[in-house]
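ugh ok so i messed up the first submission bc i forgot one of the chains. this is the corrected input, ALL of the components this time, i swear. 695 residues overall. if the numbers dont match what u have on ur side tell me asap before i send this to the collaborators (the ones from the other lab, u know who)
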Amino acid sequence: MFEARLGQATILKKILDAIKDLLNEATFDCSDSGIQLQAMDNSHVSLVSLTLRSDGFDKFRCDRNLSMGMNLGSMAKILKCANNEDNVTMKAQDNADTVTIMFESANQEKVSDYEMKLMNLDQEHLGIPETDFSCVVRMPAMEFARICRDLAQFSESVVICCTKEGVKFSASGDVGTANIKLAQTGSVDKEEEAVIIEMQEPVTLTFACRYLNAFTKATPLSTQVQLSMCADVPLVVEYAIKDLGHIRYYLAPKIEDNET
Amino acid sequence: MSLKKALDDCMIDFDRCVLVTDLLEEYKLSYKEVNDVLEAYIKNQEPATKFEKRFLVHGKKKTQGSGAGEDLYSVVLESKLKDWLAKVQDAESQLYSVKIAGGTKSPAATFKPMQHLEVKLAKVEQRPGAGKLVPTANGVPATNGVKSEPSKSQGIKSEASKSSVKVEPSKSSLKTEKDADKPPVGKGKHSPESKKTSPKEQASKAKPAAAKKGSINSFFTAAASKPKDVKATPSKPAAGTMDNFFKKQPPGAQKSPTEKEKETKKAAPAPAKKEPSKKKSPSPTKKTSAANTSVQLFDEESAESSDEEEKLDKLRRKVIGSDNESDVEKPSTSKRRRISDSEDEEQPPKKATEQEVIAVDEEMDREPANETYLDEDGFVITQRKPVKAQPAKKKVSPKATAPASKKKSPPSAGKAGKDGSKTKQAGIMSFFSKK
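and heres the new structure output, hopefully the right one now
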């Protein structure tokens, strides 16, 4: 038996919004430690890793490890039926082929439940090695979203250059070039507005804009985003989900095309 | 839906001017059928509602001198029909449009020729410039100058295009109007169908092409599953797989292109080298492409085996030594070509071979039709096959292929090229290992 209850459906809604653009289907691996999801996008350029800790749920019970393959579009549809303040409960029997998602209004006057068919997804799980990143940038998630959106107008690729001076996002295309530099903030009143750079060595990497923009769909989940970079290693874009876990996106860099 | 049903269901708004031409197009009926149905409907309605009918009058203008005057077509109100019929010689009339008489109406087209009706005209000559009048946009003929409601006409157009209507409302003014819009060529079988479908086809063809170029998806699958792809060949034995990456990448030492070349030369047989070399050396090919095919004859063989290469090299030396005439002087006219290689003279032969190999590879692709052999005197003869178009085409190709190949290389890199940097999208699988 699996049962997980969240106080606010809005969190689950946001999570779904954050991944459904990249993934059509995914397997939620439930265990007593929580729920985990790992999946690559169709083109195998990016990887989404979602971790929801069991202690972040209002109620969490997972008797046996359970993998629930879901169509994320369908799940998003169901979640749209919930009010933001509703309690949401996910339930599934062991070896069941359906999951029940139940919404309860705050005053318990309205209870709605939706049953969704589960899928058998043959998805590869990748081992993600521990990496000492050369640069870790923490910045406002909104700012990052804005930058990605703006630069996407100039080019399909964004060059992220991180030095001790700061982090620079650049794009150049037919329109022209765009450079956005963010310096490390000295002292900020609000923690969420801070730009913090931890740098071992400078890094310059090129990434596809469209993926970055897909990642920024997770912006509502967190005020801050963390970009971890290292030469010839995928970028890690991490959004923390307060008290619940995190969502990490891995994006393969664009590499030098030696053969041209 | 049949016209009768549409009429019975009041689907046709007679507050607006209902044109028979529209009905013809929409319901794909013959004029007679439409006319009959419409007349019957009007008859039924007539006592209750009054209709204003317009008729198309066709006849010949009465001229004073000669008996046979000019053809005349006119759309006239029912009330004036008799006058017109009297006025015009050989007059005939047909119902053209109907609307409810009186009241306020939104303006409607009182005249609209058929958009896609194939008609055969008995005695009408094509205007010579008529075809030119049809402006086409994306292969779809634009409207013919008669103003019509865009939405409505579009709907009709698309419907009409789906099935070719072959109605022949004999000798009506529609014909002449329509005919003027038709391109002269397409009278018989040039149905609107073909015009309509072709852009769709084009679009559908263009779309995958664009997708191929733009989406990383296509690149990635190409890299993973199609080793024949130009990019995926030698320097990255399995660029798509993680393991390789981790074995090779972390050491960080990205080998220089020359090193790679050497490696691949050692490891891979010549044909495998072919494609990358093509890309790496646009400049040498340009040098050799125009007239210097003779050099590449040697190179071609030299690429095949080192022994042969040596032999040929010697032979080449010999030939060059025997004759210092420059090849440039009569490259195009002479059937026989003597070997001279300007690069050879500048560079030690063995160094040159590398470049030559590259050149040969490309040349091999370009001019497979040429026959080459050693003649009795020891000259290498390049005999161009009579098909001249081929070499001509292929000579153009190096210019064209160079940018084209760059664009093709990886679909993502093509666009990255725009950004000034030559990058291609790596797959995430290359960085993580499967559990």
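quick check: Helices of chain A lie at 9-20, 72-80, 141-151, 209-215. that seems consistent at least. Chain A touches chain B through 38 residues (CB under 8 Å).
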